[in-house]
Design goal:
Two copies of one chain form a homodimer.
Chain A: H1 3-9, H2 13-30, E1 37-39, E2 46-49, E3 55-65, H3 77-93, E4 98-108, H4 114-130, E5 134-142, E6 148-158, E7 173-176, H5 182-191, H6 199-206, H7 212-221, E8 224-229, H8 234-245, E9 248-252, H9 260-269, H10 273-279, E10 286-290, H11 294-300, E11 306-312, E12 316-320, E13 323-326
Parallel strand pairs in A: 4-5, 9-12
Antiparallel strand pairs in A: 1-2, 2-3, 3-6, 4-6, 7-10, 7-11, 8-10, 9-11, 12-13
Chain lengths: ~350, ~350
Amino acid sequence: VSADLKNAHAPNLATLGEFGLIDRLSARCRAAYPPRVRCGIGDDCAVIALPHSDEVLLYTTDLLVERVHFLRDGITPRQLGHKALAVNLSDIAAMGGTPREALVSLAIPPGIALAFLDELWAGLMDLADHHHTSVVGGDTTSSKVDLVLSLTLTGVALANRVLLRSGALVGDTIFVSGPIGESGAGLDALLGGKAADWPALVRRHLEPQPHLGVGQWLGQSGLAHAMIDVSDGMAQDLGHICEQSGVGARLFADALPLSPELVRYARAAGRDPADFALFGGEDYVLLCTGAAELGPRAAAAGHTLVAIGEVTASGFCLRGPDGDVPLRQAGFDHLRGAPA
Amino acid sequence: VSADLKNAHAPNLATLGEFGLIDRLSARCRAAYPPRVRCGIGDDCAVIALPHSDEVLLYTTDLLVERVHFLRDGITPRQLGHKALAVNLSDIAAMGGTPREALVSLAIPPGIALAFLDELWAGLMDLADHHHTSVVGGDTTSSKVDLVLSLTLTGVALANRVLLRSGALVGDTIFVSGPIGESGAGLDALLGGKAADWPALVRRHLEPQPHLGVGQWLGQSGLAHAMIDVSDGMAQDLGHICEQSGVGARLFADALPLSPELVRYARAAGRDPADFALFGGEDYVLLCTGAAELGPRAAAAGHTLVAIGEVTASGFCLRGPDGDVPLRQAGFDHLRGAPA
């Protein structure tokens, strides 16, 4: 094989994609984890054992970059501060955990007013206070062009009840903790210049509410087996559970919780509302698998869990009026972009 | 007072500076810390109490932004990965702590080759392995222009021995754990296009070595009272200790550990080598205060601590051949830039 041929086949970032890159880089870390690392790269949070404790520590981090994750004139600074923390809180929720401490870093480009930062901070701190989360550190620096926010959040969970992506069992029911697709439709409206006509959908995209209450209840119930939050698109996020659990999944098209507002938007846009629900992303509801009685048990406890499918031995499909059709595990990939 | 006058006096980012902004934003967090937050925003690490443990958790985070903290053609990717972790390890060292877990986020602009990321990762992982630090999570995303790295590092320290900035006592001796000013001179050489002539100084800037060994020894000795790492410039970092301890300081000009290479560089550049030592920054040595016998005790244990001054009741000065002269608390401010 000549050097040229070898180069032609060498992987690059676009062919690897976000998840291929993570696999490539994390191989060396994973090989050397000490026993206290109960779960490292590859779940919503890292899980670290604490000596002499029935609790584990949870760590998660998210980077928000201007012109990639948000446009400065497409979101208010208060919403931006809220969302930066909300997406991390959602990762803690996805483990069945309770948030504790946050670290907040800002890279500030020229032209950002102090009032913008005050508002951003107010949005972040209002949500932090609501969820009893303490901001204990961070870093402030300048940047040349784009505003960057980096948040790290810690949390705790019961050691024997922490919910990983890898625990799904064949026969489990698949649940989501709220309507899906609204955030994706809101983004579509924003990008199409129709935000003023669809304020509820746009707010679902700009002001996601992390599902901590139902997450903690699921963690304590002992009836759930696997969980993830819906950030990159439901099909892709369910795909992560299937891969890491070594199982398949069948979703039921008529069970997807599509809100009337989403259905109206999809009709107006000439789109299938299920496309937003399956591939839209950023809903920040929880997707979990477990015993069928989780649904009624959750309802009795004041929580919402909608059964949308079942865990199978293999395959990945959507059952619609014409029977089972293969489902793409597609969703947002930050190094490739939106699904084709 | 008219609205115009009020606006003229309204604070902005440049007048506030990095530390004014941190004070402004952190006021609300500090007011609400629960008892488990033993130290929040304002030290090298946050310090969090653990139930049923004689250890505390340490958290620190740093953001590295292209064209602000580094130039892509001024540092090798391997050095960049090393440095991103080293500056966080130095914060753990400054508490007398031991590093544990790291979270690494990357925002990757177009045109970055996979080989660049492989090298960056190798530099980071080599240092992580050397200090038994596990990379347990992170986030990968794209960016439009600049490469951004965000690292969060956790550590542990003995609860009754953790070294804050606020513990300095009048009469303490002030020590540094190695030569100072070389990194600042190396940066000066880099920016002046003379890197090839001063490889040792440039390497001190691009490949800082965190002083974890002496930091842990200081934490266990019980003889040190306050500690910080020298990141923004020694005078400014000592100023943080003085402010947070409510004390003053006197440095002795002839005691500053200036390496022969730094002295040679300063002579060639027509500069005072003490300027690099006092205001240069990024040396990542430790600056601590404590009992005078720390120096010989450290030497006996195989560590270096150089006595450079004394903690006084008030004032901030440098004693030179002409007696005491006031010392500027100047150093790098990311929202204002280098000292005038």
